């Protein structure tokens, strides 16, 4: 059941962490109080009961207290907030007084150059405990070569200070590909050690995540790369412009328009979850698709002479086709996001038109046929758009122009 709403109320932050994904939005504006109230009223009427406020840094929002108070009076039973903790000592008591239930504080090590260390959040953590927040959870993003050797120190600190520790794998969103490659640290072995050494293990309902009672601390592991991470997800996200984001991992955005837009986002999310491919093997996948557009001889002559008014139709087609390949999962409900490795495009000039061939390669659990087909269809449609002024008849119609012979020429699986 999708009943958990995660709202980014601001894109502003008083830190600049290399790994921050800002809920998939790099804009620094604030969500207005009126828009927030509209969203949470519709969400509660749709069945949402849990709310998490994020950013950016939500403590920077001038109407944060009013937002929490409004959410509580609307009927949300569980309201939490993610913060870097640097301003928490000033606001913990007020946050608790208006109904905030839980806190997640970013904290990546005990000390060091990071803006999020025990040393820097200690005043905020102390104020949170004094205000009555229980539990308080520390979020530690584990980075290879930076703080992966500090995990045991953080576990000990969590045990000594009666706080929970959440170990989080780096996600390739918000950081550069080079940063991800250099600093991604798999927590698989860490979780195996926690499982072996735990006095007790409790499985939470949300995303099937386990809590390990280990050496006097409660430790959770968040692995965005795990097969079941998305399958067990119960949340929708709303960005600081009020757009609904069904999944952090893709670019689908739905303009908020009351309950109907929330219900649409829920349906889109549920459709993705219906097709479980987690048991399939990750293998190299290739698919080649082709198609052609039929054009007038005069249009073909103008293309050959490079006199199309809008510019080069082939370059425009390539750009559109590439975008289509990478966003197929946003257009076809049962398609999954794929880590596309390469897209090759070729064009053949015919007497009566243009033939386009696209070959897509990826390593994943499902094939790339739809990506190749989608690329051909959008690529050829873009050529049509570029030359349509030449193809119209005297009545503004296209009696002879058509896209035809679209097909999969070949698909392969394995090495």
Written as H for each helix and E for each strand, in order along the chain, the element string is: EHEHEHEHEHEHHEEEEEEHEHHHEEHE
Give the number of DSSP strands: 16
Span between termini: 39 Å
Strand order of the largest sheet: 7-8-9-6-5-4-3-2-1-10-11-12
CATH architecture of the largest domain: Alpha-Beta Barrel
Mean pLDDT: 91
Helix content, binned percent:
25-40%
Radius of gyration: 26 Å
| Biggest beta-sheet profile | 12 strands, mixed
Per CATH, the superfamily of the largest domain is: Aldolase class I
**What is the strand content?**
25-35%
Structural class: alpha/beta
* CATH fold-level topology of the largest domain: TIM Barrel
Write up what this structure looks like.
The chain is of the alpha/beta class and 415 residues long. It has 2 domains: 4-274, Aldolase class I (TIM Barrel); 283-413, Molybdopterin cofactor biosynthesis C (MoaC) domain (Alpha-Beta Plaits, 2-Layer Sandwich), CATH 3.30.70.640. Helix content is 34%, strand content 25%. The chain contains 12 helices and 16 strands. It has helices at 33-46, 64-74, 88-97, 118-131, 151-161, 177-183, 188-197, 259-274, 297-304, 313-326, 328-331, 369-391, and strands spanning 4-8, 50-54, 78-83, 102-106, 136-142, 164-169, 200-203, 210-214, 217-222, 235-238, 243-245, 254-255, 283-294, 340-350, 353-364, 402-413. Strand 3, helix 3 and strand 4 form a beta-alpha-beta unit. The model has no long low-confidence stretch (mean pLDDT 91).
């Amino acid at each position: 059941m999708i009943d958990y709403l995660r709202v980014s109320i601001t894109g502003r932050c008083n830190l600049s962490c290399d790994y921050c994904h800002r809920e998939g939005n790099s804009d620094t504006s604030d969500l207005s109080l009126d828009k927030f109230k509209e969203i949470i009223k519709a969400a509660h009427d749709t069945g949402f009961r849990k709310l998490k406020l994020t950013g950016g840094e939500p403590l920077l929002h001038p109407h944060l207290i009013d937002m929490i108070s409004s959410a509580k009076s609307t009927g949300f039973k569980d309201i939490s907030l993610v913060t870097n903790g640097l301003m928490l000592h000033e606001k913990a008591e007020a946050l608790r007084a208006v109904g905030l239930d839980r806190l997640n504080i970013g904290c990546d090590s005990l000390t060091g150059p990071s803006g999020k260390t025990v040393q820097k959040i200690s005043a905020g953590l102390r104020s949170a405990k004094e205000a009555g927040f229980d539990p308080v959870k520390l979020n530690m993003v584990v980075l290879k070569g930076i703080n992966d050797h500090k995990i045991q120190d953080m576990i000990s600190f969590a045990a000594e200070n009666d706080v929970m520790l959440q170990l989080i794998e780096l996600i390739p969103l918000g950081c550069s590909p080079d940063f991800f490659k250099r600093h991604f640290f798999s927590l698989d072995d860490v979780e195996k050690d926690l499982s072996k050494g735990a006095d007790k293990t409790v499985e939470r309902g949300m995303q099937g995540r386990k809590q390990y009672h280990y050496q006097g601390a409660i430790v959770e592991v968040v692995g965005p790369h795990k097969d079941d991470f998305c399958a067990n997800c119960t949340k929708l996200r709303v960005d600081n412009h009020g757009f609904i984001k069904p999944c952090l991992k893709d670019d689908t955005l739905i303009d908020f328009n009351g309950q109907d837009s929330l219900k649409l986002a829920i349906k889109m999310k549920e459709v993705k979850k219906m097709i479980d491919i987690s048991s399939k093997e990750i293998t190299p996948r290739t698919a080649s698709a082709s198609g052609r557009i039929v054009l007038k001889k005069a249009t073909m002559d103008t293309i050959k002479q490079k006199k199309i008014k809008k510019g080069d139709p082939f370059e425009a087609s390539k750009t559109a086709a590439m975008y289509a390949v990478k966003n197929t999962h946003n257009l076809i409900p049962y398609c999954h996001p794929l880590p596309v490795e390469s897209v090759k495009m070729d064009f053949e000039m015919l007497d009566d038109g243009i033939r386009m061939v696209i070959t897509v390669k990826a390593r994943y659990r499902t094939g790339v046929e739809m990506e190749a087909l989608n690329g051909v269809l959008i690529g050829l449609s873009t050529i049509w758009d570029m030359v349509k002024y030449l193809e119209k008849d005297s009545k503004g119609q296209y009696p002879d122009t058509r896209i035809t012979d679209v097909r999969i020429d070949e698909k392969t699986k394995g090495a």
